[in-house]
């Protein structure tokens, strides 16, 4: 643990809470493995004793509810309309991971009226100091909501597969986030690769496009997940992969990713939880 992290933890402890790292998991193209990553990374971090919250920012098909085999009674909509408190809305999975479920009706957080924004912010305020990690599962693409969620988080993890459209769409996403939202650092997760060489190829093609066309953008190859039929089986069985084959290669891969996430150091001034939601809601990314 280095000095900066030590200091951050000391300050947080003194204030009576935890300092929260906020990560978004995003992609240009859908169906690349964002929700898989979020669902399993959350459990891996939890296994290490962290308090983890998943913010479901996508109503996609195989969403977090399906993968965890849960059906939370309330969601973001109930926070926004003021009918439920944050403690009623947060759903705790059997692994001890908390989920803030997505609302289908709410397209753009930034378009909420003042009363609804205040409802949300006042409830979110109560989460201060409760979580070590907030992981946002965003929708794919470059909608305003996705941009705000990403630019409000401290670390942007971009999931990309070897499919050419996945690579070009990931580049498009990085381009918009860097040119319009001044985001300069991106953590790339290659997924569904068949060989080590393929994983490097995917990462390198993003790097060469970024180097050529974008100004001072930094890409880091955070992690690679190989293609595995077992992932598909785990989804069918509705058991998160990290538990489906507890000691398997992919489960270990998620644990390795968790280690790397714990080691990431905050180098910028973006705050934690509070900052994240206020930014996401007000749109001042
Ligand atoms: N490592 C992998 N190996 C094989 N299939 C995978 C892998 N990761 C994801 N998939 C497949 O891709 C599908 C989409 O994954 P998901 O996490 O729901 O994507 P997203 O959230 O990006 O839309 C999954 O249902 C699964 O079938
Ligand atoms: Mg998804």
What key attributes describe this structure?
alpha/beta, Rossmann fold, binds adenosine-5'-diphosphate, binds magnesium ion
CATH class reads Alpha Beta
Kindly report how far apart the N and C termini lie.
Answer: 29 Å
Order of helices and strands: HEHEHHHEEHEHEHEHEHHHH
**What would the average pLDDT be, to the nearest integer?**
88
Beta strand %: 15-25%
> Number of DSSP helices?
13
Bound molecule kinds, no repeats:
adenosine-5'-diphosphate, magnesium ion
Tell me, what's the shape? globular
| CATH architecture annotation name | 3-Layer(aba) Sandwich
CATH level-four homologous superfamily name: P-loop containing nucleotide triphosphate hydrolases
Trace the largest sheet across and list its strands.
Answer: 3-4-2-5-1-6-7-8
State Rg.
Answer: 18 Å
Helical content band: 40-55%
What is the total tally of β strands?
Answer: 8
Q: How many structural domains does the protein architecture include?
A: 1
| Structural class determined from secondary elements | alpha/beta
CATH topology: Rossmann fold
Write the layout of secondary structure elements.
Elements: H1 3-14, E1 21-27, H2 34-47, E2 52-57, H3 64-68, H4 76-80, H5 86-89, E3 91-92, E4 98-100, H6 114-125, E5 133-140, H7 144-152, E6 155-160, H8 164-181, E7 185-193, H9 196-213, E8 218-226, H10 229-237, H11 241-244, H12 249-263, H13 273-282
Parallel strand pairs: 1-5, 1-6, 2-4, 2-5, 6-7, 7-8
Antiparallel strand pairs: 3-4
The site of adenosine-5'-diphosphate has 18 residues, from helix 2, strand 7 and helix 10.
């Amino acid at each position: 643990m280095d000095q900066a992290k030590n200091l951050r933890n000391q300050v947080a402890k003194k204030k009576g809470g935890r300092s929260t790292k906020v990560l978004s998991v995003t992609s240009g193209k859908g169906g690349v493995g964002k929700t898989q990553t979020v669902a399993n990374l959350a459990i891996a971090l939890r296994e290490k004793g962290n308090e983890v919250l998943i913010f479901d920012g996508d109503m996609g098909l195989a969403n977090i509810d399906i993968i965890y085999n849960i059906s939370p009674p309330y969601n973001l909509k109930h926070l926004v309309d003021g009918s439920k408190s944050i403690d009623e809305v947060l759903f705790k999975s059997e692994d001890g991971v908390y989920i803030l479920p997505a609302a289908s009706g709410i397209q753009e957080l930034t378009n909420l009226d003042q009363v609804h924004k205040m409802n949300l912010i006042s409830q979110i305020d109560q989460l201060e100091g409760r979580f070590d990690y907030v992981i946002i599962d965003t929708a794919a693409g470059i909608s305003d909501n996705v941009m705000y969620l990403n630019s409000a988080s401290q670390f942007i993890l971009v999931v990309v597969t070897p499919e050419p459209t996945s690579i070009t769409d990931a580049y498009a996403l990085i381009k918009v986030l860097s040119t319009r939202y001044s985001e300069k650092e991106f953590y790339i997760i290659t997924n569904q690769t068949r060989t080590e060489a393929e994983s490097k190829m995917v990462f390198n093609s993003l790097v060469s496009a970024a180097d050529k066309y974008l100004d001072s953008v930094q890409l880091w190859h955070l992690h690679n997940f190989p293609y595995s039929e077992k992932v598909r089986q785990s989804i069918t069985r509705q058991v998160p992969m990290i538990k489906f084959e507890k000691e398997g290669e992919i489960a270990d891969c998620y644990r390795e990713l968790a280690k790397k996430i714990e080691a990431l150091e905050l180098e910028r001034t973006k705050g934690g939880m509070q900052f994240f939601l206020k930014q996401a809601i007000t749109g001042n990314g």
